[in-house]
Amino acid sequence: MSVGLARSLALALLFACTPHTQAEPEAEELKVAPMSPTELAPRIATPPVIVPLPEPEFAAAPGHLEDGHYYVKLRPQQLQDFVAALPIAAERERALALVSTGLGLQLRSIDDLGLERDGVITGTLMRPVAPRIAAVREQIQQIAAAPAGDPAAIPPLPPELLRDAGAMTYHNRLHIPVRDPEILLALIRKQERASGLCERLPHDACVASDSATILLRRDGGALVVDAFVQLYSNPDVAADDGRVEAAVAAMAARPAKLAALASLAGDFALYIHGATIPAIDDIFALGELADTLAVTPSGQRRAVVDARLAEHAALLRLRDTRRLFAGLSVGAALDPSDVRITMSWEPADLTAAQALEHLFAPASDGLPGPSRAALCDGALLCWQLPPLPRLSGFDELALGDYAGQDRLGPTIAAAGQMGLVVLAVETWPNQLGALERWSLAGGRDAGVARTFFELAGGVQGAGGMLRPGATGETVHYARFHQQELGLVRSLVTVGGATFADVPVEGLERPLAAAALGDRITGYVAREPDEKTGWIIAADHLDRARWLLTQAPRELTTAPTFFIGSDDLAGLLAQIGPAGAANFATWTAGRKLSVIGEFNRARPRVQIALTRAAPGQ
């Protein structure tokens, strides 16, 4: 295995008012004066007392070890049945042929690998193991600080650095239930063995190269696979001692004790643990530097080292805040006719769980809108949104570099790809806090942003639909109280549109319209009580009239949001990605629903792909 392939494998593993008759305010009136530090201070709550999560009381899965980054559970038979039901026969056959050639085995199903048909594979991936990482970091910094006699020369790196860097690895553990262990053992034994390294490690089968080591061991009715990927490897340096040291230490790891692992369910489940992100990036950064410095002139080494270590420092700053999430779980039930996927963020502690329920609580009870059935039955796409939480509650998370968008933006840019992982897995609520703090600052942009945030917090329910047809039928709406309704009209006017009264037969309320372009017209309507109203965007007046006079109404309180389609095949054909047509036969007759619930201790998003009617 080449160095590039090993690094690619590691990256692959790492890797989402006033009534309408009021005069409109001038644009200048939308500016908001900056808040002084004394005005800002009371908005930041006293840091809460952190209550840790209780120790889990379940037995750890045999393949789950402490300090992992990814934790997986997989039912191979169910995955095979699901893939077999997809309309990708040609692609499937090509993949099987490629794998068969590489393994030297005629592979038709998992039975050919000797796996237990009802077994569950559990595993831990990307465990950072680096017993000599402190020495590597020190030596790299010394090299960067050394004066360059000839700036264009490329001095060789010290052998000690190369040996220590070779000991940095990512440990991957799989526990695979098998009915016949000899099939997989024989496959490994056919591969090229590395002289000396395998003999020093416990195994029933082993294959090793300068950049990876794979060990298989029998464990009752299962095989245990330990795979080590080296982030730096140099075949010219005898690094066996360091690699053996790292492997022996890794295989002695204790079982994982993470509460999130108790909820892993489905035919495929994955948990991404945020605590290991710094160590993973540290190993990758130092391995990358060792590899790069070997071909970098001495006059450029300082700049190369400083740039990469600055990236790692930015990553650490992204995590140096009050994080509400410990990780992200994904689970999938892969019945060929009913696919259900759940994503949930795991609270960092009990205090965080309580804070999440409070922060994402709706700002109000909302106002009635069209029922979900009225919007969604037969729709190509429909959506509903109850009242949103007010962004003002998130400023208590605006700590560290999240204290302002002007600080956060450069940090995100400097942190690289792993910085995006931190945001997605651990700190995206803190980003909302940064937006809130930024909107309280001075300047026109911040003032406009604050207006929009307050307007979003004033939404009393929203939704919309797109129905199939030659020209389609489009209507979207948002419910507001009188004050926010006038503010929306003002913002639209500032944007250049003009509302004019539209008489509508049979409509017992004022209606004003403004052209928004692309066949879409904006409408503002007040309810007879003069206290509430609607903002509507539709492709025809009839759609607005239907919404106001004919659609049955209900109060949308939960979930946080809903997106659905009664015609998944038609939706993909119209707005799907390239290649979606290949799945037309599988998606025909299927419905899509996406439900997001965030005002809970474990915020989650549920995706379901189901038959449109039973028996289809």
TrEMBL record:
Keywords: Signal. It comes from the Bacteria. Residues 1-23 form the signal peptide. This is DUF3352 domain-containing protein. It comes from Nannocystis radixulma.
